[in-house]
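=== RUN LOG ===
request id: a7f3
mode: sequence -> structure
chains: 1
length: 185
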Amino acid sequence: MGKVILITGAARSGKSEWAESLAKQSGKQVIYVATATENPADIEWQKRILAHQQRRPQNWTTLAVPIEISATLADAKPHSCLLVDSLGTWVTNLLDQDEISWQNTSTEFLETVQLVAADMLFVAEEVGWGVVPAYPIGRLFRDRLGSLVRQLGAICDTVYLVAGGHVLNLSVLGTPLPKAIDEEL
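=== RESULT ===
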């Protein structure tokens, strides 16, 4: 199994830049797995996507993978480094799944991560530090992403938190929680 690294933090905290820095340091062929889909009608969204594209070195391969992350990971070669940005967008893309389908999708993802020989970097938004969302879809997103990030963090070699322009290595500074009974694979 390759190295598995999770980079989490708030919006605009520098998560993606830190992940990109780690990918460059890997010395491997970087495959950038973009979970966002372009929307020409949303100018602000397009600007965000363009900013990410402009930061990437030209020798990186970019794959647009809004849904099938597990299959993409499973196809990775050991000499590569996959940078998945972001899990929050991936979860958003799958919010229409019912609970059983989501459980199957997230379980497949977590199982696949543990089998891949390539290095993998996952960028994920840290959610739930504010008010409880007023709408059911917001609560569903928060709960699904929060649970996924916790489960992924439990199987990662390293977990980083990016906050206030600083990177904290939680694997060194923190103590992992025991696996939650309702989150076991």
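=== NOTES ===
The radius of gyration is 16 Å.
DSSP finds seven helices and seven strands in the chain.
=== END ===
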